[in-house]
Amino acid sequence: MSGSNAPIRQAVILAGGQATRLRPYTDTRPKAMVEVADRPIIDYQLEWLAGHGVDHVVVSCGYKAEVLRDHIAARGDGPEITLLVEDEPLGRGGALRYAASGLRPSGDPYFALNGDVLTWFPLDEFAAYHREKGGLVTLALAQYQTSWGIVDVTDDGTIEGFTQSPMLPFWINAGVYIFERAATELLPVKGDHESSTFPDLAAEGRLFGYRIDGFWRGVDTVKDVKEASEQIPALRARARTA
To answer: Domain Nucleotidyl transferase spans what residues (predicted)?
Structure first.
């Protein structure tokens, strides 16, 4: 494990998958290129990573890879980007392992992001937490917000009111990670790390969770695109006036 306090300089983004639940947006583009508030998801991610000192990002893709390649080639700023194309679907764990093969040789840890996540929280604090815990992998955790309304009801059946889409006292995998290099070889060549690598690391006490204090949104459905496209301009307007 790395004991350095230096910023983490490299990251991988998983931008493969056909994202059928996002159609028709993904009929012509990969999920990472779906526009939210008039910008592709991956542009938000690259900007966020660069703002915290990341200068090299490996993007692993497959479906509609040429769209992503053209977009990256046209970018004029931000971190250096290495694009890797999967010849066949590898699953999320396999894609992570494959993407990590494109990182610069180093013993330092790296960030990893799912390509359908929009979030802003301090990555330097995330890295410090990871190093303090001394594990092999640290997951960012987002508080679970239900899409259902909650009925406030007393024991005798009297309804006192309703709460729409509250935050619940549970935490979910936010799709943002820090990996030590030694963890990469524990990932499956093909398959899902959440059903193999992560349970094994948890059993060994080498997997930790960092609770996010900030905006997080997974973009999995057409409804998510529409709601996030309303949330982000509002968030940025509040930030400008704060």
So the answer is: 11-232
